[in-house]
Sequence to fold (180 residues):
Amino acid sequence: MLHETRPAEPLSGVRDTLSACMQCGTCSASCPNAAFMDMTPRKLWRLAQLGMLDEIERSEAFWLCSSCYTCTLRCPRGLPLTQVMAEIKRVVAVHGGRTGRRHGNFYRLFLNNVEKYGRVQESTLMTCYLAAMGSPSLALSFAPVGLKLAAKGKMHPPHSAMKGTLKPLFAKVREMEARS
Ligand code: SF4
Ligand code: SF4
Fold:
């Protein structure tokens, strides 16, 4: 179980949780997204055990975790690996450098967007994301993609939120996370 109190060192809770990892690689072999990651979950656990936050932040592996729970179900040590992935995302978003904060902002706003609209609403998501980042150069870097999508009729105006569809689900997850 991850620590509830704020750790003295950002990865200390993750490191304690992973202390029984024997580096067997079952998690990596089971992960459906491992082929798209720039390092395997097994290697990520090792870096976390060593407290190497900078190395972890340079990777995008944990952002590609889709929380499918396969690794958690198959780990012979019974480690809560999906929860660890979520904690690594949180630690990098809070304690990481600019790249970590950028990915963290996008991740948080993506979930807020899905909770509000019932599915992702691209134009609203990007407006919120660019406003949160406050970087004119970042906004300009997305302009060519936006223009291309608009030319192909792929930019839709915000649709009304799906009233209540996903809010109970998100509320339940928050409740469970508060208990864990
Ligand atoms: S399956 Fe469990 S014990 Fe094996 S490498 Fe992954 S986390 Fe470690
Ligand atoms: S929970 Fe994440 S890391 Fe684990 S198997 Fe699924 S996608 Fe891979």
